[in-house]
Write a structure and sequence with these properties.
five-stranded antiparallel β-sheet; globular; mainly beta; single chain; Neuraminidase; 309 residues; 2% helix
């Protein structure tokens, strides 16, 4: 969920689980959809990507669960899940941890045992946060998820914290418009130390600007990151995907626009990587209403500066 774009110009839409039409038989990896090449294509049209506003797109490491979010308008988001059972994918239903409050921007740990997400649910008591979203985590409990817990005051501030993404070692990257940043919203990094997340560090001027940066996707080994940014001089639309590569000394290269056909004249946001690393998923409003698209993940390496390959 991009902080600016996803809190503006929202519209009401009914739940995708409603509807009387028969649900089709979907078999095989990736809901049985035909994989894309180097040109983005819409993912699961009419099933996931509909005339509603869909964003986020996350598979579990075993490929047997697929999660995505949709907007109900007025800053309200719901996370949906589909499961592969006996070779068939189930109809989308509300995820167990998303049945109350507004929930969005989920990431699943590389061992499949934790789900991270943004929510405006109460930190304590019964009143949702007026200031915005915190980051939460739930642990796997059999085929479902346990009760979510807040990631605490080191990670969460009195402002928005959204769009978590984690490395193979569970280092957390996320977006926040907290005090002390470069602009409207910035990207932050928080390593997991002795079972707790350390105080976040701003990713710096190579990534963050006076404009809005959000929706960060971190590579499992922290070799690269993709960010959705708005307002930059080289932008093709209302929001574009940019990529940065990390050098051996830990420094990030200046984030570069990924160009067409990844980006369009509309907003392109919410990048996600398939667990096998083969496909880049993202959301785009290029067809009008935001849908989920996917493309061969080789587009990431293709964007690496020639001298750095």
């Amino acid at each position: 969920m991009f902080l600016v774009s996803c809190f503006a110009a929202l519209f009401w839409s009914p739940s995708p689980v409603l509807g009387s039409e028969p649900f089709p038989e979907l078999r095989g990896p990736y809901l049985g959809d035909v994989p894309p090449g180097m040109t983005p294509k819409i993912f699961a049209p009419g099933i996931v990507s509909t005339d509603r506003r869909e964003l986020n797109s996350v598979f579990t490491p075993d490929g047997n669960e697929f999660y995505f979010a949709y907007s109900q308008g007025s800053g309200q988001y719901t996370i949906m899940v589909m499961r592969q059972v006996d070779g068939l994918w189930t109809k989308p239903e509300v995820a167990s941890f998303s049945r109350e409050h507004s929930n969005v921007d989920l990431a699943i740990s590389h061992d499949g045992q934790r789900v991270y997400f943004g929510s405006n649910r109460p930190r304590s008591g019964t009143t949702p946060r007026e200031a915005g979203f915190d980051l939460w985590v739930a642990l796997r409990d059999g085929s479902e998820w346990g009760e979510p817990t807040n990631l605490g005051p080191k990670v969460n501030s009195d402002r928005h914290q959204i769009y978590p993404t984690v490395t193979r070692t569970s280092t957390l990257y996320f977006q926040s418009n907290r005090e002390g940043g470069f602009g409207g919203s910035d990207l932050y990094r928080s390593p997991l130390v002795a079972g707790e997340y350390a105080s976040p560090e701003n990713l710096g001027a190579a990534i963050n600007t006076r404009h809005d940066e959000g929706d960060v996707l971190i590579a499992p080994d922290e070799d690269w990151l993709i960010v959705s940014a708005q307002g930059r001089d080289d932008s093709l639309g209302r929001g574009d995907l940019y990529v940065s590569f990390r050098s051996t000394d830990g420094m990030w290269s200046e984030a570069r626009n990924m160009g067409a056909p990844i980006n369009s004249s509309a907003i392109d946001f919410c990048p996600m990587l398939s667990p096998d690393g083969k496909y880049l998923f993202f959301s785009s409003a290029r067809n009008g209403t935001p849908d989920i698209f996917w493309v061969d993940a080789k587009v990431i390496e293709a964007a690496r500066p020639t001298a750095a390959r």
